[in-house]
Structures are given as C-alpha cells and as structure tokens.
C-alpha cells in the first residue's frame, strides 16, 4: 500500500490556527499557543509565517476563494428552495471561518489589507444577492418593485454578515461551538430568506414556511 505523503507543515499550521481562532477568538490566540498546539518550535512557525497577520491573511484568502466560488452560483437561483440551499451553503462557509465574523471590528481596525478586502467581500455578497433576487423575479417566485431591490438586498447582506455576532451575544459560552453549528446556520438562512416573505408568490411563501418550520425558534 502506498503511504500518503505527510501534510506540509505550512498547511498544518493554517488548519490548527483556524481551529484555535474559531474556538478562542483571534485576539486570544498567540503564535506561541499555535506552535505549542502543533508541537513545533516558534522558530519553525515563524519560518512559514513570520507574523500573525500573515496567518490571518492566508486564512482570509482561503475564505475569499471558497466564497467566490459559491457566490458565482447565485445566478442559478430560481425559487425558494434554490435560495434556501444557496444561503445555507453560504452560512456554512461563514461558519468555517467564523473567527473573521466574531472578531470582525477588531480585525479590521488592526489589519489594513483585511479592511480593504472585506469591503470587496461585502460588494460581492451584495451583487450575488441582487442576482438572486433578479433570478427569482424572472422565474415568478418573487414580485418586487425595482426601487425595493437594493434596500432588500442590503438588509439581507447585513443579516448575513452579522448573524453570527448576534448568535454570539445571545450565548457567548456556547453559540459558536461546533455542536451548535447546524441550528445556528439554519436560523441564519431562515432569517435572511424571511426578508423576502412579503414579496414571495403565495405558493413560494408557503414552501418557505414548510422549509423553515422545523427550525423556527424564538430569538
């Protein structure tokens, strides 16, 4: 049997860093903790990533790639079921890199590159949501005045961006733990999609209630 090649150290460093950032929050994770968790010397860590910002930026680049691939699929959304799947998939990516959202303001205040690129992320999210609305309109799933499209898309992006912060404030000790992921993502997708309820065609509104009924919980 051919043995698998060991994962490269740089790859392992990013994986462990992401896990620690997500678990404890980026401000609470030092490079010393990362190297100890990996069982390598701080010098070995610095060889691959000379500064903590380089770890953050590398993880953000991964997030950007995953997000970009998904956002390009927004043009194919035609109805509530498509939108539900799209939004849940989007929240899965956000959850995978949740430290970015948990510590967003702090990260942006310290990292100029991240500040600039996260603005691009917001623009791309907004464009994707507008495409989602356009596709659903063309296929008769929603009926929305053109003047309401932009503010509705913006509201959806705001919920997408700050949903995990809302979850965290509600229950700081447990909200962002892996065991709570599925329910947090479902609630987020529900609340984003519910912003379209006033514009949904009757059968689509009913289908939305069917899709989300099992996950509706008081917030």
Counting helices, strands and paired strands, the structural category is: mainly alpha
Instruction: Indicate the percent of residues in helices.
Output: over 70%
Calculate the terminal CA-CA distance, rounded to whole Å. Answer: 53 Å
**What order do the helices and strands follow?**
HHHHHHHHHHH
Radius of gyration, in angstroms, nearest whole number: 19 Å
* Quaternary structure of the protein: single chain
Largest sheet: none
> Outline, from the CA principal axes?
elongated
Fraction of residues in β-strands: under 5%
Sum up the structure in keywords:
mainly alpha, 219 residues, 72% helix
Task: Outline the structure in words.
This protein is an all-alpha fold and 219 residues long. The protein has helices spanning 9-24, 31-38, 42-48, 52-71, 80-96, 98-102, 104-110, 112-138, 146-170, 181-194, 202-212. The longest helix is centred in the middle third of the chain and has 27 residues, at 112-138.
In short:
The protein is mainly α and 219 residues long.
């Amino acid at each position: 049997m051919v043995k698998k090649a060991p994962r490269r150290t740089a790859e392992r460093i990013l994986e462990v860093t992401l896990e620690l950032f997500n678990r404890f929050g980026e401000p609470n994770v030092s490079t010393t903790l990362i190297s100890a968790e990996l069982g390598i010397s701080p010098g070995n860590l610095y060889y691959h990533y000379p500064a903590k910002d380089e770890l953050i930026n590398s993880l953000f680049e991964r997030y950007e790639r995953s997000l970009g691939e998904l956002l390009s699929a927004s043009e194919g959304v035609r109805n509530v079921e498509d939108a539900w799947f799209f939004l849940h998939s989007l929240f899965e990516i956000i959850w995978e890199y949740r430290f970015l959202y948990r510590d967003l303001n702090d990260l942006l205040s310290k990292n100029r590159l991240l500040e600039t690129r996260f603005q691009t992320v917001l623009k791309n999210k907004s464009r994707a949501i507008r495409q989602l609305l356009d596709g659903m309109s063309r296929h008769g799933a929603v009926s929305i005045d053109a003047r309401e499209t932009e503010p509705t898309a913006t509201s959806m992006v705001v919920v997408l961006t700050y949903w995990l912060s809302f979850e965290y404030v509600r229950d700081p000790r447990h909200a962002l733990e892996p065991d709570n992921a599925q329910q947090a993502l479902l609630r987020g997708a529900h609340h984003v999609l519910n912003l379209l309820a006033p514009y949904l065609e009757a059968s689509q509104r009913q289908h939305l209630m069917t899709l989300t009924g099992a996950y509706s919980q008081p917030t």
